[in-house]
Each structure stands twice: as C-alpha cells, then as structure tokens.
Amino acid sequence: MTGTATPGTNVAPRSWLVTGASRGFGRAFATAALERGDRVAGTARDLAALDDLRARYPRFLPLRLDVDDAASVRDAVAEAERHLDGLDVVVNNAGYGHFGAVEEVTDGELRAQLETNVLGPLRVVRAALPGMRGRGRGHLVQISSIGGVGAFANLGAYHASKWALEALSESLSVEVARYGVGVTIVEPGGYATDWAGSSARHSAPLPAYDPMRAEAAARRGAQEPGDPAGAARALLEVVDAPEPPLRVLFGELAPGIVRGIYERRLAEWGAWGSVAAAAQR
C-alpha cells in the first residue's frame, strides 16, 4: 500500500481483513488498526454487530462472512480486496471453544469444531493468498492459543483444532516465504473475551467428569485475565516488525505455562531415550 505514514510510526498505512470482528480479540484488533489510521475490513456473521464500528470509522468496511461457508469466504475476501486495493494483513480470528471431556464429545461436535477453527482459516488463507503472492507481500496472522501448544482437561476438541491450525500454519510459512508473505501464529493465554462465555459450546455432561469440570472452573477463576486492548497493541508491534515471528505468546502467564509444557516433554523424552534408540534396531 502507498500513502502517508501511520500516525506515530514509520509504517505506511495498511489494509487489514479481520475475521470475527464483532467482539473480543477481533474487535480489539480492528479498533487498534483503525485508530492509528489503517483501513480495515471486519467480518461477522451478523452485520448489525458491526454497526458502531462503521458509524465511528470511515475507513471501516463491514462484511458478512461465515467461515463455515466457502462461498461466503470467497465473496467477502474478494470484496475486501476490491474495496481496499489489496490486503496487507489478514487476521484469522473467527472461532469458538468447545468444552467437554473427550468421552463426552460427539463426532458431530468435533467435526463442527474443526470446521470452524481449522477449515475456516484455511478457506480465508486460500482466498487471500493469490493476491498477496501476486503483489509479493502480505502477512497472515493465525490466532491460536497456548492451547495450540499444550492440552488440558475438558477441551480436547478445541485443542485438536488449534494443534491442527498450528501445523498447517507452520507448513504454510515455509511455502509462502519465497513470495514475500509472512505467517505469524499468535498464542494468547487467558483473556477477558467471550471465548468461554456465550460463544462457547458444550457437550452433554457425564456425571463422572463433574469433579474435573469444577477443578477447571476453579483454575480459570483464579487467573487474572488479560485485556484484549493490550493484545491489540502487541499485534500492531508484531505486524510492524521488519521480521515478524512465526510464533508469539500473548499474556504475562503464557511464557511460563508454555515453558513448563516443553520442560515436561523434554524430560519425559529424555527419560525414555534408551527405548527410542532400541526402537531403531
């Protein structure tokens, strides 16, 4: 994109597409980009949820998009490309969390979780990439979670979706680097969004897992949630970086949690190293 520098930076104004912009991280990301002078196409399944952003920011383009619908994705991305003269940053944020022990999760529930959290971002990437490759630049931001690195009780379907998203995104990063397109996987910890509220879905509970649910709820209640506005400021820093990271953690607690996950894995692999070697012969 050409134009004057974004206020307070040495970066020219960018054009963004942010999915799931009606609330939570998506709303915060879109607002932060608009506030500094960028242009944003924000999507939601219900356009009325974007009315206030459209009224407040002339540079905001509201688009109806359902990531579960391939035609909806193609149409919305094409409209964003036309209206904004190309896309510089695409943020795959739309998604939801499914709660339930693995035994409780039905086939249909798991398929729905993967449909939205994995195939949805993939559809957006496929629609946006041709334009980015053609222009020789672009940045794909995939909103994952520390749940894309480790897995905890009562969230197996959600973790499966985020682990899959991370694998696809890491492969993607290698494939598109030669075309000037970057990929960043954002891995937030706990934040004050609606992720575990009205947007969440739940499997029918089995009484055997009631103690597990109580323990998980107590752990979440003991954590101080992060502010999505802080995450939005951090995302601006990431997309403005000359060499953005493939992975970045958001939140004060996230690095310690992830470090613990990897330390336990390395220790276990090391303890069973002789078995690994014996399996070769």
Question: How would you describe the overall organization of this protein?
Answer:
- The structure is a single chain.
- The chain is an alpha/beta fold and 281 residues long.
- It folds into two domains: 15-250, NAD(P)-binding Rossmann-like Domain (Rossmann fold, 3-Layer(aba) Sandwich), CATH 3.40.50; 255-281.
- Helices cover 47% and strands 15% of the residues.
- The strands form two sheets. It has a seven-stranded parallel β-sheet with strand order 3-2-1-4-6-7-9, with helices on both faces. A two-stranded parallel ribbon has the order 5-8.
- α1 (24-35) links the parallel β1 (15-18) and β2.
- α1 crosses α7 (228-240), α3 (70-84) runs parallel beside α4 (107-135) and α4 (107-135) packs parallel to α5.
- The longest helix is centred in the middle third of the chain and has 29 residues, at 107-135.
